[in-house]
Write a sequence for this structure.
């Protein structure tokens, strides 16, 4: 079973776009997902701060800045 993590921050318009794509794909495929505020961890902020939103699939970086619905579906297939 796969798991998607969205790293973002409040007020980020790209994060809002990513959230919509992830929620749609996860719902259709029955995949769990979570969103983590990148500012909740200094380590996450240092590693990904300029790349948000960042999408992780099973803990591995998958996309950043934009989420491709097709690429996400392929990664979860």
């Amino acid at each position: 079973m796969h798991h998607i993590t969205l790293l973002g921050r409040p007020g980020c318009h790209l994060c809002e776009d990513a959230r919509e794509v992830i929620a749609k794909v996860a719902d259709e495929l029955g995949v769990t997902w979570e969103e983590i505020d990148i500012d909740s961890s200094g380590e996450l902020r240092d590693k990904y701060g300029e790349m948000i939103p960042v999408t992780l699939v099973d803990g591995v970086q998958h996309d950043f800045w934009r989420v491709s619905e097709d690429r996400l579906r392929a990664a979860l297939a």
Remarks:
- Residues 13-29 form the longest helix (17 residues).
- The CA atoms of residues 15 and 53 lie 5 Å apart.
- The two ends are 10 Å apart (CA to CA).
- The beta strands are 3-8, 32-37, 54-57, 60-64.
